[in-house]
Amino acid sequence: MLLDTSTATLNLGRDEMARLDNACDTRIDCVDGVAWITIDGDRRDIVLSRGQSFSVESNQRVIVCALNGAAAVDVHTRPGRTRCAPVRRAPALWSGMQSWLRSTTLGTMS
User: Fold this and answer.
1) Alpha-carbon distance values, 65 to 23, 40, 48, 76 (Å)
2) Domain residue spans of the chain
3) Given 53, 69, 75, 90, which is the most exposed site by the fewest CB atoms within 10 A?
4) Whose CA is closest to 54, among 70, 33, 86, 76?
């Protein structure tokens, strides 16, 4: 699902999750329950209870998950330019493997 709005409420059932892409400068407010937030490449696990918030400072993929039952979070994006650089994803492992296999196979055929 693509949300194109400055504010959205996500009502997550037990163990449900939502993915936020390009979420730099987004504030996530927990309005009910407990929400777990993880960010690709970030070693932190963020756990929010009702009334707590977290500001995303990265354009990496963000996963928001309900813990211990249902949770509701408000997602607030800031309009205009963000201070985060675009994400540069490394090539998929399989693509690299295919290249390596091609070079290995071609090398043994000569």
Assistant:
1) 15, 14, 10, 17
2) 7-109
3) 90
4) 76
The percentage of residues in the chain with a pLDDT greater than 70, rounded to a whole number, is 66
pTM, full prediction:
0.70
Residue the block writes with tokens 């090539």: 91
**SS3 of 80, please?**
coil
Phi and psi at 6, nearest 5°, equal: -80, -25
Q: Token pair for residue 110? A: 């000569």
pLDDT tens readout for residues 21-72: 888 889 999 999 999 999 998 898 899 999 999 999 988 999 999 998 999 9
Which has the closest alpha carbon to 28: 43, 58, 1? 58
Distance of CA 31 to the CA centre of its chain: 19
Rounded to an integer, what distance in angstroms lies between the CA atom of residue 10 and that of residue 64? Answer: 9
* Cα separation, 33 vs 25, whole angstroms: 23
